[in-house]
Design goal:
Number of helices: 13
Number of strands: 4
Strand content: 5-15%
Length: 309
């Protein structure tokens, strides 16, 4: 690499970092102001704010740079006239419990640790082509559940790569470790920094990332779909109650939790994991998940205080 090209790349990185940090200040003011207003709003008004915010961000960002709707992760629940786009690591356990119960599956089968509830649902709720799906959106109430992007990333790392409950993720965990450690250890566990580097590597080499940490913008193409409800995992209880009331499903929706409860508060985990990253590595991750932060109104400024210089 020539001296000139090295200086150019360094300058571009500094400009990118400065732009992101500068944008954080304005973005945080907007989010804090909107949070203050939402405290006195009804669940209906909060939902409408989320939908309006989504539309505005989509218009500013060229529909999230997505040109074709992704249909793979929609479940059309015809008996209830509902259309659900699943975001992995965002309340899917509770929702699939109810969706599969409506399909007639037994509770024992649904709650069995060996059951893949997404594939189980697909048997009763088959995949729909793009044209059929768009028609379904017009005739059904569509919804999704979202989650703060980096908290979702932490959850995926802890459950899938550290937990290693599935042979696929156990093998993937060891593969990621060997990518960044030449110490001959075959069963090493990757650090969060290793995981972040791997996520960026996959993105920049245009490789499909795992569904548990793929951006919501890629999973549910929210700028090209029509949604009636946006629920957030952070307010899942009250959002689910509002959703049940509006869809007349009171008594038919039950919230369940199969995953182990986290022992550490999320703020402590954020500090623990993001202090492993440099600011440049944080900027690299934001390049991937920035659109999710913006689409669903999540601030990302707090992460810069933990990243290393």
């Amino acid at each position: 690499m020539t001296t000139w090209s090295y200086r150019l790349r360094s300058q571009l990185r500094r400009i990118t970092l400065a732009a992101l940090i500068g944008g954080v200040l304005v973005y945080t003011i907007i989010i804090v102001h909107s949070k203050g207003r939402c405290q006195t709003k009804s669940p209906e008004e909060i939902n409408q704010d989320r939908l309006l915010h989504l539309r505005e961000v989509c218009e500013r960002n060229n529909n999230g740079n997505i040109s074709r709707i992704e249909t793979s992760f929609y479940i059309h629940i015809k008996n209830e006239s509902l259309l659900y786009c699943l975001v992995f690591k965002s309340g899917t356990t509770s929702l699939f419990y109810n969706i599969n119960r409506w399909a007639g599956y037994s509770e024992d089968q649904i709650l069995d640790q060996r059951t893949d509830n997404f594939m189980l649902a697909r048997v009763h709720y088959p995949w729909e082509s793009p044209d059929v799906l768009l028609t379904s959106m017009k005739n059904s109430l569509s919804f999704l559940v979202v989650r703060e992007p980096f908290e979702r990333l932490i959850s995926a790392y802890e459950e899938r790569l550290l937990g290693q409950l599935h042979p696929y993720f156990k093998n993937l965990s060891h593969q990621i470790y060997k990518l960044y450690h030449d110490d001959g250890i075959e069963d090493g566990i990757p650090s969060f920094q290793d995981f972040a580097r791997y996520v960026v590597y996959q993105f920049r080499n245009r490789k499909d990332s795992d569904l548990h940490w793929r951006p919501i913008n890629d999973l549910c193409t929210p700028c090209l779909a029509r949604y009636d409800f946006i629920m957030k995992l952070e307010t899942f209880g009250q959002d689910l109650a509002y959703f049940a009331n509006e869809t007349h499903l009171q008594g038919k929706i039950k919230r369940v939790q199969m995953n182990h409860a986290r022992r550490d508060p999320i703020d402590r985990l954020v500090r623990k994991y993001f202090s492993q990253l440099t600011k440049q590595q944080l900027v690299d991750l934001l390049e991937i998940y920035r659109i999710d932060f913006e689409l669903f109104g999540y601030p990302f400024d707090r992460y810069f205080q933990y990243a290393q210089p």
